[in-house]
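To whoever is covering the structure queue this week,

Two jobs came back overnight. Logging them here so there's a record in the thread.

Job A:
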Amino acid sequence: MNGPMGERIWTSSIAEHIWELRASDPEAFKMRVKEYFARGHPGFTVIRAKYPHIYIQDDRASNK
């Protein structure tokens, strides 16, 4: 799948304990997801969260 500027969109996943935050504390959920991908997948931007997938965009080529 390609993003709005032709970047590759990937699907990934996160732990269930992070998904559980989505209902109880949506802001904490967003923050944890962004932190997770910043550490584990630098150069990727979180696009969307739709259980059970997190959609991330590969921005590494555009950062060069």
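Job B:
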Amino acid sequence: MTRVPLVGLVDWRLPGDHFDAVELVHDMGVEGLQLDLGGPGRGPWLDAPGTVDRLRDDCFRRGVRPLAVAGNTLNDIGLLVPPGGQEAVNVRRVLLRVLETAQALGAPLAFVPSFRRSEINDVHDLRRTAAVLSWAAREAAARGLLLANENALAAPDSRALVEAVAEPNFRLLLDTYNPRAYGVDVATLIEATHEWIAPQVHLKDGRDGVVSQELLGDGDGQVWEALTALEKAEVTCDALVLENDYRDGGIQRLAVDVRRTRDRTARADTSAALA
């Protein structure tokens, strides 16, 4: 990392709704928030009438930066649906809603995940995903946004995805735990893909491939080693975004994770200054 990043949270791992998340970010003394588009089983739609305007105002009043908008509902719909049909049209509509909401909130990044129904398991899946993301990246560029994809691919397939998308504003969203849960070495992944890693990184920890209630650094995710790898690769990181699960109201755990993240970045900044 070439600068001290701000600390952010994701609204889909916090108790309450979008508006509660803005208030909690402010109360925890962190700077930024990633928001999910929502959808069936995922909470209220972020782009419901009046919601974006109110959120933008709330963020401004509380000094909270909208960092990104995620389309997590695409894990349920599937980026891999065959082209040309109604399902493919629906995927594009959702992607446009993600992009338009990010633009309206003033967030610099939009991202979509590739898990569950969107998981990339073979060359066909990769090519289909790349075709959809290439179109979406062009739409994102027209709105002044970066587009990122979060996946669990190993380094060679991650590079193949970037090359297949072939758009300059396309990035890979790094999560410090998801690749490990799929048997991917995170340090190797960072070394191989560092030039395409999105400037916002998810910090997450767990045990035996499952995210439970492990504090950052207490699980088997090697969180701080991942940050060291990012620093070594000189990845530009604007935000470290905590994605442990606090939906049960575990605010004390959240406070500890925030403190640990700040302590770690402060030490790294001191070391860099002395080098």
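Note for Job B: The mean pLDDT is 94.

Please reply-all if you pick these up so we don't duplicate work.
Q.
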